[in-house]
């Protein structure tokens, strides 16, 4: 479909491109979760109830779901440098406006604009890295740019609480200004200006169908996490999403220039990484939702102690980065995804053993080990996704991967909420009064999804992606 040229950035700037994109990803991921602990103070500033501000989170995530599918076409038409730089500028400007607003309506409007900038930053930034990185350096690059997706959801709530407590919620958004300005300058300096010479037409029908399907499913996921939402309303949006999604698939497979090219699924490693990988992402995305609730509601901790404990997951993520590449070279993708995937699921199940009387040291150990396992699995999945994708297909594969990955964030929260509802039902009470035993069941259900995620890995060849991992002495 896409004839995007494989134009690498200057060798001297390739490492800087990876760092730049990782920083942009961190800003985008952080803004999706950091305002959670600031909602009460923001509600007082706007004169509304805290629950009404959930639209500030929802509108941002919905905008990402709608506009990410168009990012590949925009990057091919106008060039990675122009689009990525503009995306950072839009995201940064909208962040400043978010901090200056004094009402719910203008705040929501600013969040939507911020989401548009974020939707362009994620897949276009990944595309910049993929074009600038050779296959033998791909694992290291992917390891760096996937770090924000693991870290931001974990440190977002405690960081937001710290800023809100000692300064003002407005600084949550103002801090993006210096980072954004630096990013704009570096992106314009180091990214290439390659465009797609084909100038393929924009698939408006596909964009509309994907947007409606993504919005309906994401909103249904948001409703699932709310105790005041009825199941009938949730089911209605899920049905709309499913029907529109089916229509979108039918259209994308038959149009000459689809907004999302599905041919990347013909690449075995990409298909496996997307199917099982999405289930894994859903399972680990439930953890930042369940852990703070368990610590605060189930164990009776305050927000500060809860936030400090969840940082143990963040520490595990960072510690694993040091040994990820040697592990992958020693054992290869298939073995790591199978063994570590099972271990990651077991580490989630281990959280079901935590109780209000468990010593803090054991809680920290369990969370740290879980952080190690999920970091290795996350990096392996993301690297395998692009291991065998030809350079001309990178734009389409990046857009498809980003679209599906964005959906899993909302689905992970929904999985956590559904697991809690099931646990409460099994214990014979409503979700308004959850107990530590409910969280134990919820974590076991989430771990079960993690186990199912590794089934597809058995279909991989033993040397799958060896030219990227270096397993068995092979390299690009």
From TrEMBL:
Bilayer-spanning residue ranges: 55-75, 82-105, 111-129, 141-159, 171-190, 202-219, 231-250, 270-291, 303-323, 335-354, 360-387, 408-427, 439-460
UniProt subcellular location: Membrane
The keyword Membrane appears for this protein: yes
UniProt cross-references to Pfam families, sorted A to Z: MFS_1
A cellular component term, taken from the record's GO annotations: plasma membrane
Domain Major facilitator superfamily (MFS) profile: residue ranges: 17-465
Keyword Cytoplasm attached: no
Membrane topology reported for the UniProt record: Multi-pass membrane protein
Keywords carried by this UniProt record: Membrane, Transmembrane, Transmembrane helix
Single GO term (MF): transmembrane transporter activity
Alphabetical list of PANTHER family matching this protein: MAJOR FACILITATOR SUPERFAMILY, TRANSPORT PROTEIN HSRA-RELATED
The protein's name: Drug resistance transporter, EmrB/QacA subfamily
Lineage: Bacteria, Pseudomonadati, Pseudomonadota, Betaproteobacteria, Burkholderiales
């Amino acid at each position: 479909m896409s004839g995007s040229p494989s134009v690498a950035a200057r060798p001297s700037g390739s490492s800087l491109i990876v760092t730049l994109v990782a920083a942009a990803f961190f800003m985008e991921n952080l803004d999706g979760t950091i305002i959670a602990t600031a909602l009460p103070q923001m509600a007082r500033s706007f004169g509304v109830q805290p629950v009404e501000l959930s639209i500030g989170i929802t509108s941002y995530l919905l905008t990402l779901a709608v506009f990410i599918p168009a990012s590949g076409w925009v990057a091919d038409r106008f060039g990675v440098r122009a689009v990525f730089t503009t995306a950072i500028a839009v995201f940064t400007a909208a962040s400043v406006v978010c901090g200056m607003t004094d009402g719910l309506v203008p705040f929501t409007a600013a969040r939507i604009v911020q989401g548009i900038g974020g939707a362009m930053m994620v897949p276009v930034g990944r595309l910049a890295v993929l074009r600038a990185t050779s296959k033998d350096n791909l694992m290291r690059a992917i390891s760096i740019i996937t770090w924000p997706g693991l870290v931001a959801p974990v440190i977002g709530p405690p960081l937001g609480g710290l800023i809100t407590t000692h300064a003002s919620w407005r600084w949550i958004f103002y801090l993006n200004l210096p980072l954004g300005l630096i990013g704009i300058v570096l992106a314009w300096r180091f990214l290439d200006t390659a465009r797609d010479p084909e100038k393929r037409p924009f698939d408006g029908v596909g964009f509309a169908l994907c947007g409606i399907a993504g919005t309906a499913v994401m909103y249904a996921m948001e409703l699932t996490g709310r105790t005041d939402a009825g199941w009938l309303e949730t089911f209605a949006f899920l049905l709309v999403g499913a029907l529109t999604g089916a229509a979108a698939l039918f259209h994308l497979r038959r149009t000459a220039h689809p907004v999302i090219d599905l041919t990347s699924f013909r690449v075995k490693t990409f298909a496996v990484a997307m199917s099982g990988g999405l289930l894994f992402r859903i399972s680990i995305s439930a953890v930042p939702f369940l852990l703070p609730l368990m610590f605060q509601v189930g164990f009776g901790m305050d927000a500060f102690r809860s936030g400090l404990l969840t940082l143990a997951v963040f520490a595990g993520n960072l510690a694993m980065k040091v040994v990820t590449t040697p592990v992958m070279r020693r054992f290869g993708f298939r073995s790591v995804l199978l063994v570590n995937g099972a271990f990651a699921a077991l580490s989630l199940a281990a959280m079901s053993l935590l109780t209000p009387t468990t010593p803090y040291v054991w809680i920290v150990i369990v969370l740290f080990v879980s952080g190690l396992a999920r970091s290795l699995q996350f990096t392996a999945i993301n690297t395998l996704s692009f291991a065998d994708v030809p350079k001309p297909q990178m734009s389409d594969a990046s857009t498809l991967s980003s679209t599906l990955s964005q959906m899993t964030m909302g689905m992970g929260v929904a999985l956590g909420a559904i697991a809690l509802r099931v646990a409460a039902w099994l214990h014979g009470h409503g979700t308004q009064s959850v107990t530590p035993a409910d969280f134990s069941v919820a974590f076991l259900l989430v771990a079960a999804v993690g186990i199912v995620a590794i089934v597809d890995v058995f279909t991989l060849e033993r040397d799958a992606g060896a030219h990227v991992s270096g397993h068995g002495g092979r390299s690009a």
